[in-house]
Amino acid sequence: xxxxxxxxxxxxxxKGVVQGVGFRPFVYTTAKAYHLCGNxxxxxxxxxxxxxxxxxxIEQFCTILxxxxxxxxxxxxxxxREYECKNFVGFEILDSLHRNKTTSISPDIAVxxxxxxxxxxxxxxxxxxxxxNCTQCGPRYSIIETLPYDxxxxxxxxxxxxxxxxxxxDDPANRRYHAQPISCHACGPVLSLMDKEANSIAQGDExxxxxxxxxxxxxxxxxKGIGGFHLMCDxxxxxxxxxxxxxxxxxxxxxxxxxxxxDQLCEYLFPNEQESRLLTTKERPIVLVKKxxxxxxxxIAPDIDTIGAMIAYTPLHHILFSHxxxxxxxxxxxxxxxxxxRNAQELRERLGDVVDFIVDFDRDILNxxxxxxxxxxxxxxxxxxMGRGYAPYSLVHTGFTPLKIxxxxxxxxxxxxLAYDDKLILSPHIGDLHTIEAMEYFQRSVETFKRFYDFQxxxxxxDKHPTYATVQWAKDQGKHVIEVQHHYAHALACMAEFGxxxxxxxxxxxxxxxxxxxxxxxxxxxxADPYNYQRIGHIKPFRLLGGEKAIKEPKxxxxxxxxxxxxxxxxxxxxxxxLHHFTSDELALHHQAWEKRINAPLCSxxxxxxxxxxxxxxxxxxxxxxGEGGQRLEERYDxxxxxxxxxxxxxxVVDFSTMVQKIVFLAQKKEFIYxxxxxxxxxxxxxxxxxxxxxDLSIVLSGGVFQNKTLLSLCVTRLEEKGRRVYFQEKTxxxxxxxxxxxxxHAVHGAKSHHG
Length: 756
What we know:
Blueprint: E1 8-17, H1 23-33, E2 37-43, E3 46-53, H2 55-67, E4 74-82, E5 91-93, H3 113-119, H4 163-170, E6 191-195, E7 200-203, H5 206-216, E8 221-224, E9 229-234, H6 238-248, E10 257-259, H7 262-268, E11 269-270, H8 273-279, E12 286-291, E13 306-311, H9 315-323, E14 328-332, H10 344-351, E15 357-361, E16 373-377, E17 380-385, E18 393-407, E19 417-426, H11 436-452, E20 459-462, H12 469-475, E21 480-483, H13 486-498, E22 504-514, E23 520-528, E24 533-539, E25 542-543, H14 548-552, H15 555-565, H16 568-573, H17 584-596, E26 602-605, H18 606-616, H19 628-635, E27 648-650, E28 653-655, H20 657-668, H21 672-692, E29 698-702, H22 709-721, E30 726-728, H23 739-755
Parallel strand pairs: 2-5, 8-15, 10-13, 12-16, 18-20, 20-21, 22-29, 23-26, 24-28, 29-30
Antiparallel strand pairs: 1-3, 1-4, 2-3, 6-7, 6-15, 8-9, 9-14, 10-14, 11-12, 12-13, 16-17, 18-19, 22-23, 23-24, 25-26, 27-28
């Protein structure tokens, strides 16, 4: 065909989440519809499209590309340039080109409705198939070894497709065209049920009936999901749930519950419209939802009125629920704060004393990924844990980073991040790095992302805390290291999500972070931009009696606050429920430690202050899990009470002495609802006062304390009523899971500044 037949020839590069989402067949059918010639292929940097045809047709094609891409795609950038005509005949899909690896990796996605219809159709060849998937759903990140996303680069490479699956895989008009995990009963992974000693109980279709029978009889099963195993039991069986608590050594931290569908969930819980929408999205996160009238086992979420709920998201889950009538506890298969377990052998080694039986299949999970956890505040999603469905997460920043940067995050809720060119990439949730197993998972995640992107960092960014495992690791790598203060990183994480480059007023409230003065910070007010920060406010430091032990026993923090205001004799004369938890000898010893500063480090942490107030309220003397104090106080908040305590701010230092005196007076009268309400209202008043003194700046709220729904809602409402611009993280974690993003944001601005 002659060159004159075409009026235009272009190359289009589409960057973002564009592989494994049905993008090439979408391009193919769209190009055919507009009589365009050329080809499309996956490359390491994205999707590469050659188009030849009329200028009008190409313009219409590009409009559809921008406005109506495949549902799972997330386009970050489209680059279009004219190109010499190649005289293509027809349009075709080419094999992947292995170039520099910069394309974003798709997160794992819940099974789609079309696949569920086939799975439930007795006349379909995939009827009852527990691993059904297509280009619009199923595993992605969890099975990828390296890019590009081809079957040969996934854990499916060992399974040879049967002729029928191969025909679907090769047909551009089929929705399973190049669906890399494609399989069926005849050629796919095999489902198995075994006991904890690895003795086989059942295989294939027999597994479901046996597994549901075991669940009905109160047994605890480890069931393989997309990114790891869940520990599952009947959520209506108090004995089974209590047994799981004892075996997992998890006395109070709430368990997540999986429901078969949204209608079943609404029988037990009261989701609002936004929560219902999130529960049924393709990402299927765990959503914090208010308890309803119908009860589940009481020990699922003791002492709080919310449950972490999710809807079944794998075909195996759906098949289980077709045989099992009740909701299921679905908690991560791990020891407390350790990474989720991804294979049966490790499960038997680590949790052999917890599980009774194991449901497995032989498609390997290469990259473990935990469930995401979100809640709705001010009709916006707030991310508490970024995992399956949302991560890996990438965003584009303005400008260009000439260096490759690795951020290693914090010690708790660890996530790592990469920066190169104009892109920031975050890993899924890794966890708390307090064990050898957790650090191994951290290092494995670093190697995985380096392999994905052929990435060798020029710079490593870490926290300032000298004993963090990530800091030690960063300094051992022989690279240039940048240290970023913990709470500054919180502020930067929020700024990065919203692309803020100007100065902001940032309130960074959390449990623990290493301060510039060597003390523990956590109730900080900054004026910050991406380059630097000024600490303009903080809580007056108080002492942690017993150091780390005070974090586990918040009654010690409350006692230290008493010692700030009263003499030992005056404390002994108070009629406080708190003081019933100390003998007179213990009071004397603690006072001596406080007075002589023996194992009693200074702290300005708002998270610890929440714990202390919960102790004054007679509801929390020993922490069962992180953030329990804040949750328990939130339960007692009364929005109808206009309670605010007195405080002073002098030279930016917030002094709570008068508030403590008032709380002591109220606690002796057991007016605990007034205390809880007054404390949260007082924090909002403090934030408002600082904000009124910096009325020209946008406001950033970040740090784990702002997971408190009541506090965050109150602050946003009051500040926005005053016409202030208020930002808090929605898509990335507001807690320490956001630290790596903040570290990256500081480093990329420094890199751009340094290199002009």
